[in-house]
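# step 3/5: fold
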Amino acid sequence: MHGNIRIRAIALGIIFGLMICAFTPFNNAYLNATPLAGGHFPLAPFFILAWLTAISGLHHRIFRSVPLLTGLELMTMWILTVIVSGIAFTGLARTFFINLTAPFHFATIGNRWTEVLQPLMPESLHPTDPKAIESLYNGIKGGSFMDNVDLIAAIPWSAWVTPLMWWAAFILLCYFMMLCLTNIFSRQWVENERINFPLLQLPRFMEEALDQGLYGSFLTNKFFLSGIIFCVLLHTMNGLHFYIPSVPEMPTLVLAGKYFAKTGLFSGFTKLKIYFYPAFVGFAFLASRQISFSFWFFFLSGGLFYGILNAAGLNIPASALGVTFGPTLTRPEETQMIGAYLVFFCFIVWLARQHLQQVVREAFGGGQTKSASEWMSLRFSFWGLLISACLLVAWCVNFGVPMLVALVVLTAFFIFTLVASKAICQGGIAYFTLTAAPLDGVTAMFGTKFFGAIGIAITAMCQKILFVDLRESLMPSLVHGSKVNEWIKNKRLFLSGIIIIVLAGVAVSFAAMLFVCYKYGIRELHLDWATSTSMTVYDSVVRVIQEPAASTEWVTTFATVGAIVMTTLVVAYNRLPWWPLHPIGYLTAYSSAMKILWFSFFLGWMCNQLTLRYGGVGLFKRVRYFFFGLIMGDFLMGGAWALYGLWAGQSYQVLPG
């Protein structure tokens, strides 16, 4: 599947991507319907891909003409929609406007935000018109009954021009840095390490079958049909139960925690849940056995670690965490991930050391080399990365952040993002969350006194916008795009499509979210999580300003433990051929995503292990169609119930949100 792509593929990708961006805020925030763009294998883009592939195959078979779209063009269209889809909600727009306005709208005498926080907020970074902020949360009077044209005219756009220009500069510089980083590491990950990209396996297999004229055989494969039929039966019954409770259901959630004692060796499993998601079983089957095994092994080991501490009488209070900025960081033991992320980043760099030396040589005038997975030259990527980094530092310094703080924090942001991107793309984790935030890593190393009042306020805002909730982050999708780019000959056309869709996606997503907020008011939207997490961030900022302190001993201890464990894992993984554990698994030991997915990875690993052990590669090649069917069936049913939910007013959720 190599060749040129036509402009129609780029055009369709841009059109469908922008349609998703325009509709997602209304769908997710107002209707609270099935998320269209959740995770790194989003529902809407794959649903569109599946139907367009079927239509293209049927058209070619009936008319025996040039295909409407080749398999490679469909892959290109799909990855463009994947890249942009997250921007419209959790990847950017979900908390963006709340993040900018919360210090003013939610200020009370009790939280002291008026005296402590508001004086630190540069006027250029938030709207200064109190009425614009009030109507954002309460809606324009009569807005829900207004004609769309009248509502657009009533939105106070002038109040948002200046802050949106400054934040757009920050966001687009960050996106450009991600593009340059992806281009620099793509050769290492795609060609040198040969990552198998589990999330790309089904789309690639579909489109190769289409190009070879075998799509009909693919769809009628008995294993593939078995997987689809299983998902159709499961979600038909459970979907009907959701709307008609008298219809029996097939449970996909078991609350296993009640079977464990609250004290003793297994006390860490008192909240254990067993979720069953067929699509994620399929992704786990397609991933490396070593990685799939490591995900569920380290998750259970993390729970057992709590029990060991409890049995030893070492009950560490949550207050020992101090001030945190992590989305799910609740216990000091979980700060192991700070040290683990830092060591794994060093491991990534060490594995790529020869390639990075080549990057530096080319950047300073050495002979140019070219890889099939690269959009741009390594020289351009290096200098683009360096210049955009300098501009980001200048952006922070312009608003009062000390230069050293800006350098350290921005480095932490991109270290965490790079490590998470490697874990997502190599591990096939379509739904990923951080345990500790980048700022948690900085405070663990330097303490909260390091930031200064303005430094912590501005960097906390920046982190909340792009670098703390990575469920729909842009960079993993760009890494997947670099793999698709390997098959495309006219790479500049593909790169142009990425640039256009990202720029347009940011603009459309901002406009769509403002439209929904001013029409109904944030108070009437399903944005409680976005509101509460933004307020928590600012509460933490105020605590840091009022009581700056060094990191607690427990945080430092467990971060060091995490670094030691990860160092042991990467050395063993790199030096011992028989070593069964992959370091990536440890990165997700305390992730909230793994609380949902651990059992799916266990099932996928077990099926993969048994298939290869007793049937070899031949059986694996046949059985994988069943797991392709599980993925296809889950997403087709997810799309079908999402469409029905738009009419019914509430949606049966097939996939994790």
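# step 4/5: annotate
The radius of gyration is 25 Å.
# step 5/5: archive (pending)
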